[in-house]
Write a structure and sequence with these properties.
The protein is of the alpha+beta class and 443 residues long. It has eleven helices and 19 strands. The chain is 24% helix and 31% strand. Helix 1 packs antiparallel against helix 4.
């Protein structure tokens, strides 16, 4: 990632809308340390996070210089140097796993969206989000993506939830391992040894899984406990799995918490598990579940179809403690977004898409072939009698894009309408995938 790759111009319409409110909308100069630091602190404030130290600010400036940082300033505020709103964005990839021949599609990652509580209800969030979407669309980027702190906000701009994640709690004492027993080897390693290897293994793992977005350098430093003032560093442990040929295929990061009343009942938190092969997945899970002096294994942000529940003798020992949507997508170029992936079989579906912002609005004919490829063309005539016909919002289309949401509940909830009987079932059969899409990080 480079700063140049994210250097899109500011949206003129958003700038004019905010100027009418007496606000200044501008890009942050990454070379201006004072301006960047004020933006970073405003971002922290927006998420109720701690104020960054000088050392942490320097790390953030270096680690986030690849992104496009946008701020909104109020010249009349008591602290006019600190933005009253922030947004960050960059070009990234979104993995499509086996659903794509090329395994990924380009997307516009949006992050750090905050508005100060003193400046709510002035159209700032709308200007920021619509400005990001127009900038990405004008650059030919097929879709935008975001992980959200509140699920009630982003649907109004055409985003729809596209991946889900689950938190698991495993009673390690109430089971025995019955899953695969790989012939490779698990090595205990120091986290710093994964500095170069972790991004490489993650990239390979993403080819197997739709919904993943790559981490950036500062992300990996944070995950490995290498950032200034890290509260994780002293507790973090790491293991690496090498296959029978000695080739690294995965790693896991975890930490342990002591039970003050029972030293034999530690809680292990699986902070991150990356597997580029099925063997790596099984071997790493087996390692954490069979670790001595551990009573409970907690695994946040895992796939909703996590296979480990089928690898132990007692399925009741593996409990889902939370389940939520995670990655939200916003389709900007509908033909590019839909033709990037592969489909289950040949069919023809007319998609009548409602997009209030206009990026993907209209009638679109999706035609898939037996090899899974597709064409998408504007439909300006009545569909053939054999075609399925579905009417839906652009947010709902984003929800089914990666195949993680069943269509029938959406139809029952009136989130999409089938204009010909059986159309919803046909749409579901086209889009559904054998493996649920999943995103393993926040951004």
């Amino acid at each position: 990632m480079t700063a140049q790759s994210s250097a899109l111009p500011l949206d003129v319409r958003s700038r004019e809308a905010l100027a009418a409110e007496g606000l200044r909308y501008a890009l942050v100069d990454a070379q201006d340390a004072a301006q960047f630091d004020a933006w970073l602190q405003a971002d922290q404030r927006g998420f109720h996070a701690e104020t960054l130290t000088e050392e942490q600010l320097a790390e953030h400036r270096a680690g986030l210089s690849f992104a496009r940082s946008v701020g909104v300033w109020d010249p009349s505020a008591a602290d006019s140097a600190t933005p009253v709103a922030t947004a960050g964005s960059w070009r990234s990839t979104l993995s499509l796993g086996a659903a794509s021949e090329d395994s990924s599609i380009e997307g516009w990652a949006v992050s750090s969206v905050t508005v100060a509580p003193t400046h709510r209800r002035r159209g700032i969030a709308r200007a920021l989000l619509e400005g990001e979407l127009r900038a990405a669309a004008s650059a030919g980027i097929p879709l935008a993506m975001i992980t959200v702190s509140e699920a009630t906000i982003y649907g109004r701009w055409g985003f729809g939830p596209a991946t889900w994640a689950a938190d698991y709690s495993v009673d390690a004492r109430a089971l025995r391992w019955t899953g695969p027993r790989p012939t490779g080897r698990v090595h205990q390693v120091v986290p710093t040894s994964l500095r170069e290897l972790a991004p490489q293994l993650a990239q390979r793992a993403h080819r197997r899984q739709s919904g993943e977005v790559p981490g950036w350098e500062h992300f990996w430093h944070r995950m490995l406990g290498l950032t200034a003032g890290s509260t994780l560093a002293s507790k973090l442990r790491a293991v690496r799995y090498d296959d029978e040929h000695g080739t690294p295929q995965g790693f896991a990061l975890y930490s342990l918490t002591t039970d003050p009343d029972d030293f034999t009942a530690h809680t292990l938190t699986l902070d991150y598990l990356c597997a580029a092969s099925d063997d790596a997945h099984a071997a790493l899970w087996r390692f954490v579940l069979e670790l001595d002096l551990v009573a409970t294994v907690r695994a946040p942000l895992r796939p909703v179809d996590e296979p480990v529940q089928w690898m132990v003798s007692n399925p009741r020992a593996v409990r889902t403690t939370a389940r939520s949507e995670h990655l939200w997508l916003r389709i900007l170029d509908l033909p590019a977004s839909l033709t990037a992936r592969r489909y289950a079989h040949a069919d023809t579906v007319l998609l009548r898409v409602d997009d209030p912002l206009g990026h993907a609005h209209g009638d679109w004919m999706l035609t898939t072939s037996p090899d899974g490829t597709a064409t998408v063309t504007p439909a300006d005539a009545d569909p053939a009698p054999e075609a399925a016909v579905v009417r839906l919002g652009v947010d709902v289309l984003a929800t089914v894009l990666l195949g993680g949401a069943p269509v029938e509940p959406l139809r029952a909830a009136a989130r999409l309408v089938e204009e010909r009987p059986g159309s919803a079932a046909r749409l579901d059969a086209l889009f559904r995938t054998t493996r649920a899409p999943h995103l393993s990080i926040w951004f």
